[in-house]
Amino acid sequence: MAGRRPCGCSLVRLLQQALVAAVLVVIILYRHGHGFSNLSSRSSASRDVDAFFGSPPAATNARPPASGGDAASATCATVERMGEEAAGQGSPEAASLRVRELIRHHFELHGAARVRALPPHEFCEQGFVLGRASEAGFGNEMYRILTAAALSIMLNRSLIIEQTRGQYPFGQYVSYTNHSFTLEEIKHLWNKHSCSTKYGRDLSMRVDNFEHPSETNVICSDWKSWKDPIIWFNGTNDSVGTQFFLKNIHPGMKASASALFGLPDSSDARPNTFGELMRAIVSPSRTVQEAVNWALKGVNPDIALHMRMMSSRPVEARQAAATCIKRAMQICRIQGTPQGTPRVALVSDTPSFVQEIKSDISEFAEVIYFDYELFANGSDLMFRNDMPLNFRLTDWGPAPRWAAIVDFFLASRARCAVITGAHPRVGTTYAQLIAAVAAANTYGQEHSGANFTFLSSIHSSLLVHGLLTQVGRSHIWDTYAGPLSCEHQPNQCAVTPLLPPTWWDGTWQSPSPRDVKRLSEYGIQLPITGEVDESQLVAHCRSREDHVDRYNILSSYMKNSTVL
Ligand SMILES: *[C@@H]1O[C@H](CO)[C@@H](O)[C@H](O)[C@H]1NC(C)=O
Ligand SMILES: *[C@@H]1O[C@H](CO)[C@@H](O)[C@H](O)[C@H]1NC(C)=O
Ligand SMILES: *[C@@H]1O[C@H](CO)[C@@H](O)[C@H](O)[C@H]1NC(C)=O
Ligand SMILES: *[C@@H]1O[C@H](CO)[C@@H](O)[C@H](O)[C@H]1NC(C)=O
Ligand SMILES: *[C@@H]1O[C@H](CO)[C@@H](O)[C@H](O)[C@H]1NC(C)=O
Ligand SMILES: *[C@@H]1O[C@H](CO)[C@@H](O)[C@H](O)[C@H]1NC(C)=O
Ligand SMILES: *[C@@H]1O[C@H](CO)[C@@H](O)[C@H](O)[C@H]1NC(C)=O
């Protein structure tokens, strides 16, 4: 340190700038060959944006497109522009209904009703995937269960949802599908059928820790060949874990992942996989449902707005959200129609914010929200008083936990659009799942859900450095947070994919330096364009051994960790 010369800082900066420019040129040249040129025509035609509310702002900070709308000359894009690309072509409805059928068929074969009744020699051959959640954030914990469900489908195994002291996670407030097992039942049946002694199959569980990049086998191993009766894919509290299988080097694994999540580089809309899974597996308890009905008074909202404010209340966040509600009204064609005023459900962790935005929008919208104090006062359906712990207050707000779960199912009744807004980061796992479940509720209905729209409201002060502050793998805009997002964007109300992307294969996606570093820990050398070099992955996997963590379930979780 002491011997180092002071840097010629201006020279360093100049070099940095030159490097950034070079990087952008490389990305743009690269993207040019990848179905980039029809972007501009699609982005203005496919979504309803009229003169009254204005069209999405053009990319700032970019050279003006040539007169033919040559998108390739832009060096960056706004979130709205990115959203048009991210949401993909066409409606996700058809792909989602295909996944719904896949889920239904899976549970018909591997659901508890059939597997429970199998003769011992068949039962003892069955495989299971464990879903294990605690009761931290609702979105993150639900993703753990949904990840297990997705993996059970990919691997042709049955689903176990673990209970703690006889209770499912959030079991007071939600019910789970009766297609799943509990671990207790599996242990019981394993003993009853003498699977260990008679059929030589010990009840072992293989644990794969996704949060330990050097240990997880998510890219390199053929999980279909794993013999352990139970598999637990641990550490998957968002949509990223299962979608890592889209780059697994074994064709069978990749094919199963693609069947559930669509092809990552396809320009068609991807299925609403987590919405379909949640719809199939989780439903509100009777009491939560009654609270939702009490708040709705029999009519579903047209639009739901979720604002995660973490106790802050910037006025521009409100303004941006109000504008986004108006855009949603246009998309839903409920403006100036005979049915008149749209019903907008408001959900926030910050109750004072709800009051403020209510006064902003009540001129043109009928506002619905769940007033938990009023409900609790007039109802004998009280839950135990589960106030958030002090250290969680900023994260979850001051309301009791059950109110957030009522809010979740209230917002997921929106029939036409869900808007996620926030300060500072947009598109939490909670908001993602609200939109996903709301969409799933509309798909396949007589009045087709093909027009269901998920929007992100991001106010301009969050976009000073483009999407760079929206990073974090569980957040919805993470894969767009690299150098291709324009700085100093005006307020954005962007169409948002229902299935958050995990990889960077699409136009305008680019990894942030943080993601490049993170992915390198998994052995993935991510170039600035974000495209994964599959032959590099194969070489990486060849130099690596499977990491095995194995527990014996019947002898109370004794660990046997080895590297095979
Ligand atoms: C699961 O629930 C459905 C309807 O709620 C019922 O028809 C079915 O019999 C149940 N299956 C089992 C195995 O309990
Ligand atoms: C999944 O299980 C079903 C029925 O047990 C079987 O027909 C099918 O071939 C299996 N698929 C794979 C990929 O193992
Ligand atoms: C599951 O993951 C958590 C967090 O990554 C870790 O602390 C825990 O030890 C893991 N459990 C097992 C059994 O490996
Ligand atoms: C997921 O869980 C890990 C630890 O279990 C935590 O560090 C991480 O912040 C969680 N992700 C989110 C988005 O909360
Ligand atoms: C709840 O009921 C009590 C007594 O009936 C009343 O004093 C209080 O104002 C009520 N609170 C709300 C939020 O309605
Ligand atoms: C969906 O959009 C189509 C045209 O884009 C329109 O004809 C149809 O009425 C809309 N459906 C609903 C339920 O709004
Ligand atoms: C641990 O696993 C290895 C290989 O699977 C096995 O040979 C060994 O007996 C196991 N040890 C214990 C204590 O279960």
From TrEMBL:
Keywords assigned by UniProt, alphabetized: Membrane, Transmembrane, Transmembrane helix
Transmembrane feature ranges: 12-30
Record Pfam families: DUF7810
Superkingdom of source: Eukaryota
Keyword Transmembrane attached: yes
Identification of the protein by name: Uncharacterized protein
